[in-house]
Design a protein that fits this description.
Elements: E1 4-8, E2 11-14, H1 15-37, H2 43-68, H3 72-77, H4 92-110, H5 114-139, H6 178-197, H7 206-222, H8 237-259, H9 271-278
Helix pairs in contact: 1-2, 1-5, 2-4, 4-5, 5-6, 5-7, 6-7, 7-8
Length: about 280
Amino acid sequence: MHPIFITIGHFTIRTYGVIVAIAVITGIFVSMHYSNKFKLMDEDTFLDIVIWTIVGGILGARIFWILVSPGTSYYFIHPEHLFAIWEGGGSFEGAVLGGLITIFLLVKKYHISFWKFLDITAPGLAIGYGVGKFACFFNGCCYGLPVPKWWPHFFPLINVFTDPRSECDLLNTALFPAQLLDSLAGWITFFIIIFYVVKHRRYFGQMFIDFFYIFSPLLFAVEFVRYIPTHFLYLTPNQWVAIGAVIFALIAEHFLKKNLPIVDSEAQQPEEMREKKQG
């Protein structure tokens, strides 16, 4: 579509990097809103954790993407491109894993509940993914499979990439709009969380667990129309991650319902008020 945002002399800014930055900032503000809503921590503490979580997420996203990419060997031949994230190429699943590891290590330092912190990240993750997938749309990466002849050949039911500067290897070909479908999955997850899950929480960690329940099946479905040469037992790496996320959610939910329940009358109360009652 439009892989280059602006070029000044020999300096080029890709649209991918601009939109990813917008997605990250949007996700931060949304998560900060819920941190303030639940009175979980002050904004300085929140930002301290988030900054390091972003670093961990970026590393996780890039490493995971390189490992499952069909062009993995390219990065070992050209190691200078290993962390050139501005060129495009990052896995949301890897970002979540890298972020989770970072959060787990940091919340102990700030004496904050791991699961309560994950709750406030859920809506930020969802909207960040919804916005961020437009980066792939403009960059031409994460593209879909060629559509059959009987499929309606008009936008937004198809994508056709024509710019040779894009990351798409199937130029001038009608493709399934995988990036837009992925984006839609993020937006659907976001709206369900903020309009339903937040109001019906029964245990701490539920917002994050429900993120997995809602988002993972949507991701799994979109993968069937996405161009992914790498498969394990007929499924893509992302589909296996989606299955693992649901299994993880089932196990975690069983634990959290027993150990971190929220009393009905306290579900919408600020964190500090609940702690006073529990004390």
